[in-house]
Amino acid sequence: MLGYIYEFEDRYFSEFACFSNDSLGRQRYTEPSLLRTEYQRDRDRIIHSKAFRRLKHKTQVFLSPKGDHYRTRLTHTLEVMQVARTAARCLRLNEDLTEAIAFGHDLGHTPFGHSGEAVLNKLNPDGFSHNVHSLRVVDFLENDGIGLNLTSEVRDGILHHKKNGTPRTLEGKIVSYADRIAYMNHDIEDAIAGGILLESDIPTDITFVLGHSKAERINSLVTDLVKNSYDKNLVSLSSEFELLAGALRTFMFENVYHNPSAKTEECKANKMIELLYDYYKNNICKLPQFYQSLIKTWGIDNAVTDYIASMTDPFAVRTFEELFVPNSWNL
Fold first, then answer.
1. Using CA atoms, how far apart are residues 60 and 183, in angstroms rounded to an integer?
2. Which of 12, 133, 213, 229 is the least crowded, having the fewest Cβ atoms under 10 Å away?
3. Are 101 and 278 contacting, i.e. CB atoms less than 8 angstroms apart?
4. Is the dihedral of CA 88, 89, 93, 98 positive or negative?
5. What is the mean pLDDT of residues 209-237?
6. Residue that finishes a domain, picked among 257, 276, 308
7. Is residue 233 domain-shared with residue 275, that is, in the same domain?
């Protein structure tokens, strides 16, 4: 039944695409599906995972924002997927592989965004990086230690999606660019909504070329990415747009990501994670049974890290309150 899909790919895909029937396979053999390619199955496994559902309650940039329209880690993921899939279709690459990588790229994020990631990196002797942990989630932690058993290409794209990553497929490279294109521009929109930025604060040498709105800037960057990469064995922005994207990213770090007004609650969140980490490390019997079972193989620090990294923002707060905040009582 999948023959027509393979025929479509042979006829319409770029010669540089990752063809669905050329996958290097999974870590464990799985009987092929009659209806879906291996990359479609990976996408569906990710969407149906617990880690994916938890993204809706994990911070993107702003901790505990007062409003329903600020991005979460889940809405960020959806926007990355949309940008990546648009580029993949225009470049005649594998949209299903691109989509699977995009959906899985942030599964390993901690509560409280990159702030939580930095704390766990400091506390765990082995360090912590969300892209590496995303791979650990899909390889092992999901399904009570069985993992999702994803294809090699999706696993590679998840691991190497960061700016300094080196994905071996063009589809993985697209997701890496889409991640940056999406977060820079939707974070600008959230920062404006939160009173951190004005559109006029963005340097005019950037907005003159990229545009004066989120939609214009995303369109400009994706259009350049496609034009510069079409029918080539590479995915990259032109040198001009690479410089502009870098300048916009620098502007965001200086004015939003490191802005004290946007980070007023981070110290509290960091202290919360530190106290939770210390508590569970010294009270391993209080860890859920699954995470206790990891200690023998992975050590206490990694078991505690796995548990805390899995928490959503509200679950971390609720757990902290249960452990450290006295309950009221009646005489």
1. 9
2. 12
3. no
4. positive
5. 97
6. 257
7. no
> Which of helix, strand or coil describes residue 138?
helix
| Residue-wise DSSP of 166-218 | --SSHHHHHHHHHHHHHHHHHHHHHHHHTTS--GGGS-HHHHHHH-SSHHHHH
151 three-class SS: strand
Asked whether residue 125 carries a pLDDT value surpassing 90, the answer given is yes
Structural domain of 308: 266-317
CA dist 272 → 189, 258, 279, 319 (Å) = 28, 20, 11, 10
151 and 215 housed in the same domain? yes
In a domain, 4, yes or no: no
User: Residues 105, 248: one domain?
Assistant: yes
Residue 20 in any domain: the answer is no
Specify if 120 maps to a domain: yes
Which residues in 319-330 are b (16+ Cβ under 10 Å) and which e? Answer: bbeeeeeeeeee
Q: Please check whether residue 100 lies inside any domain of the structure.
A: yes
Residues 111 and 192 in one domain: yes
Global pTM value: 0.96
Neighbours of 57 (CB within 10 A): 16
Tokens of 96: 């299903």
Across-strand partners of 26?
151
- Total structural domains within the chain: 2
Mean pLDDT of 150-162: 98
Q: What is the DSSP letter of 286?
A: G
Q: Is the pLDDT of residue 64 over 80?
A: no
